[in-house]
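Example (one chain per record):
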Amino acid sequence: MDGETSLEPMLGALLRRPLQALTIQVTDDLARAGFADLRPAHLVAFQHLEVGGSRLTDLAARAHMTKQSMWALVGDLESMGYVERVPDPGDGRARIVRRTERGWAVEATARASVRAFEAAWTERVGSERMRQFRRVLEEFSGASHPGNEPTSP
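Predicted structure:
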């Protein structure tokens, strides 16, 4: 140790704290809107699900999860009526996971929640600092996983 009496939070902790606060707000807002059966883990599937649907293997890869773990999440979401699995028109052996009408309602609610969260933080830190913060996060996101950015909240 170099003589410090306390440890500064590392970058991961600094990034995790606002993400946890956002996740809590989105989950609470979803519950108030009638989606109380969703858990934060389920949101991972929505975050990586493309507008027209995605193959399960692609969802797992984008979420950095095993196919088995993503299969379990998608199975939960399917049994709750948020997604459906349909044949892939480009490959009859494969299936596409896509949102149902209920899944699109979750998407809209989650996006509104994220916008409200961002607006509250913009009010707190100011527009210019928030623009700078977003630019830095976008730069980090692109540098760490080029072409692998989430498509949803």
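Caption: The helical segments are 11-32, 40-48, 56-63, 67-79, 101-125, 127-144.
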